[in-house]
Design goal:
This protein is of the alpha/beta class. It is 26% helix and 30% strand.
Length: 307
Amino acid sequence: MKYPTKPTTPQFELIIVLLQPVGNMIEPVINIASPGMASVEWNQCRLVIEMSQHYFHYIVVRKDGTVVVLKFYQFTSKSTAETMELLEKILQHDTILKESMEESVIVYNWPENCLVPEKYFHVDLIAELLTLIHGDLNRGVVFSEKVSGWDMYNVFRVPTEMHDLFQRSMAAGKFRHHHSLWLECQQKAINHIRDRVYVIFHPNEILVTVIEAQRLQLVQRLEYQTAEDVAYYLLNICERFHISPKDTAVQLSGMIDLKSAMYEELLKYFDIIETATVTSGVDFTMDFTAFPEHFFSPILNMAVCVS
């Protein structure tokens, strides 16, 4: 098989128009709201926020799973300080985030994390483990959580000032990590996760998960510049794990356009490509028609299965 050209130092390909401040305001690049917003009882709703280095994404759902609002803010900050400045402006000016929700969940999609088999996990060693893998350049708050349905823990670190800000803004909030919650959602949705190469497209990066023989083989985030970069990464992963690109299903979710050069590039090498669907129990009857279902399936599914 002829591989695409090996990526050079990754740059960033932005899928959506970049977020731009408007005066002291920051506007979301995606803003989908229910027509009945004025009558929403916020204290009967769940707020789920996904926080990344490159975006701030949130959804509000009622108890019955009806989506009330979904917003997506994207930014290109080059430092934690810049990210914090943007985050503070969003929390200050987005009126929905000031509402008193029945439950608020902050999902950190932050790069400094490590999945640890349960038999090797020891709470006294988690900080040292993160330092060993990610170095000691960045300081922050260290968390660990059991990944429900899997014999493993997720250890992760987030900037202290960011966590403090969320605690001040949402005192009763729960804090999770994206990778833990994604794995739990897959397990709950189908009782057992299927053998697949799962690819979630985020702005500036992909998250690749490999399940083979009902075992988790890999969870890795990769930055990319071109469609050829993504194809190269996935083919390289298949080779490492002795997976046939022709016989193994690849499930795509997140912000990938099925009419894009990215999708056409993947079709050159992978015969079985699926798109993710939304778990039953989510009612997104609002105007999502401008976007395919797989665009928001990760956060929609997390909003229902988070506990």
